[in-house]
Design brief:
Chain lengths: ~325, ~325, ~325, ~325
Amino acid sequence: MTTPLRGVIPPVVTPLTAAGDIDVASFERSINRMIDAGVDGLFTLGSSGEVAFSTDARRREIIETVLRIVAGRVPVLVGCIDTETNRVIEHAKAAKELGADAIVITAPFYALGGTAEVERHFRLVHAAVPDLPLFAYDIPVCVHTKLPGDMLVRLGLDGVLAGVKDSSNDDVAFRFLVDDNNKAGHPLTLLTGQEVVVDGAYMAGADGSVPGLANVEATGYVRMWQAYERGDWSAVRAEQDKLAALMRIVTSTSGVAGFGAGVGAFKTAMALLGVFSTNQMPEPVLPLKGANVEAVAAVLTECGLELARTPEEVSASTEA
Amino acid sequence: MTTPLRGVIPPVVTPLTAAGDIDVASFERSINRMIDAGVDGLFTLGSSGEVAFSTDARRREIIETVLRIVAGRVPVLVGCIDTETNRVIEHAKAAKELGADAIVITAPFYALGGTAEVERHFRLVHAAVPDLPLFAYDIPVCVHTKLPGDMLVRLGLDGVLAGVKDSSNDDVAFRFLVDDNNKAGHPLTLLTGQEVVVDGAYMAGADGSVPGLANVEATGYVRMWQAYERGDWSAVRAEQDKLAALMRIVTSTSGVAGFGAGVGAFKTAMALLGVFSTNQMPEPVLPLKGANVEAVAAVLTECGLELARTPEEVSASTEA
Amino acid sequence: MTTPLRGVIPPVVTPLTAAGDIDVASFERSINRMIDAGVDGLFTLGSSGEVAFSTDARRREIIETVLRIVAGRVPVLVGCIDTETNRVIEHAKAAKELGADAIVITAPFYALGGTAEVERHFRLVHAAVPDLPLFAYDIPVCVHTKLPGDMLVRLGLDGVLAGVKDSSNDDVAFRFLVDDNNKAGHPLTLLTGQEVVVDGAYMAGADGSVPGLANVEATGYVRMWQAYERGDWSAVRAEQDKLAALMRIVTSTSGVAGFGAGVGAFKTAMALLGVFSTNQMPEPVLPLKGANVEAVAAVLTECGLELARTPEEVSASTEA
Amino acid sequence: MTTPLRGVIPPVVTPLTAAGDIDVASFERSINRMIDAGVDGLFTLGSSGEVAFSTDARRREIIETVLRIVAGRVPVLVGCIDTETNRVIEHAKAAKELGADAIVITAPFYALGGTAEVERHFRLVHAAVPDLPLFAYDIPVCVHTKLPGDMLVRLGLDGVLAGVKDSSNDDVAFRFLVDDNNKAGHPLTLLTGQEVVVDGAYMAGADGSVPGLANVEATGYVRMWQAYERGDWSAVRAEQDKLAALMRIVTSTSGVAGFGAGVGAFKTAMALLGVFSTNQMPEPVLPLKGANVEAVAAVLTECGLELARTPEEVSASTEA
C-alpha cells in the first residue's frame, strides 16, 4: 500500500455454510463482485465480518481466504479486534505474517481505563508491527469509548496511525476531525463507516467510506464516490437516496436486534441475490427465517434488485 | 402561519443584564440583526434560550419581549418545555394567549414511561391547544428519550404534529424520518437542530434548520439555505465549512461543560461582537471569564469577525 | 423540626379521583394509616408523589392538603423539584410559606453542566430559604447526575444541607457516604430511598428510610426500623424479606414501564386494599387495568394482605 | 466439586514481575495466604485476574500455576471470558483439560444481540463442556448486558448453570434473584461480587462472596462469613465496616480510572504488604507510582495493617 487509501473500502461480510464453515465459493462470488464493481480496497474481519465471533483459527482462515481471492487486486485491511493490548498484538503479528496491507484496531474494551491508556494501546500495537499501516476503529457502540479527535491527529502526526475508520455515528465530531486533520497536514486517512449519510461525510471531507451495505450493492457506493470526486453533488445525493432506501433491509425485520438484525439482513439479502449460498450466522446468533426473510426480499424488490432465489429457499438454506 | 415553515429558524439566545434581568436593548439588537440577515422564523424559549432556567413569569416576559420586537416580521415558535403533560399544557395555553405562531414541546422527562405515554402526551397537548401548530422537539440529550420516526409520522398524519425539530444528533434516524415523511405525503416540517452538519441534513432533505450558532452569525446560515434552495451544493458546503470553523467557539474553552460551555460561548461571542451588553448566564451557571473569553475571541478573529469589544471588557461585564 | 429526623419517612403517594382531581378522603385514609403505623415523618411531592406531573397550583393543593391532614403529628418534608435554580427557589418559597418542615431538591436537570454548578445550585436554594432544612435528593435515574459524596458532606458541614435522600441505587457509594458523614461529625441525616435492601442500608448505618412501598404497608417498615434501633438484626432481615415479597407488585405487571409500573402498582394495591378509591394516574400515564390489576392482587394475597375490593372493581374505578 | 460451593471465593489477582511475566513466588505467597486464612475456593482469570489482558498462552500459564499452587486444597473456578460463543468454548475446553473445578463466563460482548442469544450462548457453552459446573458472571459494567433473573433461574433448573457470580451492583435485582432461586428449589449457587456491601448481600441470602479485596485481607471476609453462618449479624456488620474502610485504597488515588485504579490499588497494597514483589500492571495500564502509592499506604496504615515495604520501594519496583 504505497499511496494513501481513498474511496470505497467495504467491510467484507463472511459467508458461512449451513454447518457454520467458511463458504469459499460464496466468498469468491461476493469479493469478485465487489472488486468488479470498482471498490478501492476491502476490510476483512471488521465488526460485520464477524471478527468477535471467530476463533483465532477461524480468523486466520478468513484472512488467508480473502487474500487468496483478492490476489492483490485491491489492498486488504484486516481487523485485529480484541480486548486488550497483548491480545491485539498477537492478531496484528498474525495479520502481518499472512500478508495484510494494513490493520484496523479499536480502543481496549471489557476493562476500561482512561484516555492515556487508550493512547498507549495504539502506540504499543504500532511498535509491535511498525511497518504495517495502522487504522484506528472508532466504534463506541461496541467498545464503549469514543476516540478523541486531538488524540487521533497526534497519533497521525507521530506516525502511529495511518487513518481512522469512524463508526461512531457522531457526525459533528467527524467534521471537526476532518478539519483538524487538514490543519495538521492531513496525516490521517479518514474513512466513514456510515451507510445512509455517506453524502454528509463526503460534504465534511471524508477520504472514503466503509459501508457494510456495499456487500449487497457496491456499484452505488462506487458511483457515489466517483460523483464526489468530480464534484457532482446532485449525483452524490441521488445515489445516497437509493442506498438509504436499500438500507431499510436492516430495519424491516422484527424480533431480532443488533448484529442479528444488521448483518443478518445483509447475509439474507446476499442469499436472496444468489451471491451467498446461505444466510447462516455465527453462534449464538440465529439466521433470519420466514417473515423476516420475506421482509428483506420485499425491500430488495422495491429497490429494483432482482432476486435469484425465493424467500422460502433462503429460509430453507439453514436448519430451523 | 398559513404556509409551512421552511428555511432558517434560529433558536433565540436570551440576553441578560449583569443583574440577571432580561436585557431588552440587547434583545432588540440581536433579533433585528437575525431578521435583517433574512431568517425565516425564530424559536424562542428553546434549550439554548434558557427555557429550563426561566420561571413562569420570566418565560412570559421573554415571549412578550420577543413578540413585541419581532412584530410579525417572521413567525415565532415558542418552546413550552416542562416535565409532564399538565405542566406543558399550562405553558402552551400561555403561549397561545400571548400570540405564539407555533409551539415546540419535548417528550415527558424526569419520570419516564413507555412509548405509548410519549405519544399520548403529544396528543393531549395538541387537544388542549388544537389550533396552534405543534412541533415535537427531539432532544434525547436533555429528555433521555429518542422519538421514534414512525410515531412522528403517525402524529403528523393525524394532524397532531406540524413538524419536528431534530436535535437528536442521530443523522441516520433523521434521514429515515425524511424518507418516511415524504412517503406519507410530507405531513411534517422537518427541521434539523444541527450546526456543523447542516449540509448533510439538507442532503437528506431537511425543510430547514434551527442552528443556535445563527445567533452569532445568521448570514452564513441564510446563504447556505439559499444555496440549497437553488441546488448549489458547492456553495452549501463552503458556507458550512466556514460555520463549522466558527462553531469552535464552543470547544475552545476549558473547565466548563454542557450549557455553560455551549450557550456560554454563544453569549460571549455576542458580547464580543457588541450585540449583547454582557455574557451573563442564568443561575446556577457562571459566565465565561478571562482565558475562556480570550479563547472565544481568538476563534472569532480567526474566522474574520470583527470584535466590537475586548475580552477584558466582556469579562468585566459581569461580576466575578 | 428541632431534632434530627430519623426513622421511616414514606414518600406520600397522591390519590386521584377518576376525574384526575385530588381525592381528599383517600388522602386522609392513607396518611392517617401511615401515621397510625408509627412513621416518623412524611415526604410529599417526591417522585412517587407525582411532583413532576403536578402544576404549580396542584402542588400547592397537595402541600396544603397533606399539612392539614397531618396537623403537626409528624414532620412533613416537601419536594421542590424543578429543572433549574430559579424555578426551584419559587417552589421552595411556596413550601416555606405553606408551612413545610423541610424541603427536598434534586440536582439541576434538563440542561446539564458540571459539578461546580450542582454545588452552586444547592447553595443558592439554601440562601433563598435559609431557615428551612434542605435535603438533597440523589436520584440519577430521573436527573442523570449522581451527587458526589464529598460535595454532600461539605454542604452538610457548611450548613447548606440537613440531609440526603439517597435514591441512587448505588449502595457502595451510600456506604462510603455514611462513613464520610460519620468522620465529619454526622452533619447529614442520611435516608435511603431503597425498598427491598433497606436492611443493607441499615447495616451501612442509614439514619432512616423513605420507602414508597410504605404507602401500601407501613407497619413492616416501622417494625424493621424498631428492630434496627434495638439491634435485632434477625428481625430486621425477616421484615425485609416479607416486604421484598410484597414489592413484587411492581414487577408483576406487563406492558407498562417506569412510573406507570411502579407508582401504578402502588396505587392499584392501595385501591385493592380499600385505602384509595381509584388507581387513577396523572396524564399521560394510564392506570393499570384488567390482568395487571389481577397480578397485583395476587401478590397482595400471597403476602397475606386482605383485599377490600375485587380486581374488577378497581379496574372499573377509572375509565377505559 | 461434589458439594455446592459456599463461602468466600476470592478472585485471584495475578502478580507480575517488573518485566511483565508471571511472578510465581508472589503468586505462591498470595494464594497460600488466602488458603491459610480459610477461604472456601478461588476464582482465577476473573476481571481483576486480568483475563482480558492475557493472551491464550498467558491464560494457560495462569491456570496451570494456580492449580499447581492450590494443589486441590480448595476448588478453583476459572474465568473463560471472551467476546462470543466459539471463542468462549475454546477457553472452556482448555480450562477443562487443565483441571478446572468449574468455569465462569459472561454474556457475549462486543457485538450485542437480544436476550434469546444470551441464553443460547450459555446453553451452547454448557453443551460443549457438559460435566464442568458453569457459573454465569453478571458484570454489565464490562459486557453491557444485565442478565435477567428469570433466565438465570431457568438455566439453573435446566442444569445449564451451577451458579451466578453477581457483579452487577444491582442489589435489588440480586435480592429478587435470591428469592426466585429459593422458590425454585435453590438450583443456583449465588455469589456476590460486592466488597463493601457484602453484609447486605448476606442479609439478602447470598451463598457466598467473591471479593477482590480479599486478596489484600482475606481473614476479615472469612470472619464475616463465619459470623453470617452462625447468625451473628453484629459481627458481620463490624467486619464489613472494617473492610469498607480498607476498600478506600481504590478511591484514594488520583489521575487513574477503572482497572488501573481498582486492581492497581490491590496490587500496590499487596506490594506494600510484602506479598507481591511489584505492583506491575498488564499493558496498556501503568502501575501506581509516587503519591498514589503513598495514598494506598496511608489507608493500609490507618486500617492497622503493617507495611513490609515503603512506598518508595514499591514505586521503585517497576520502571518509570
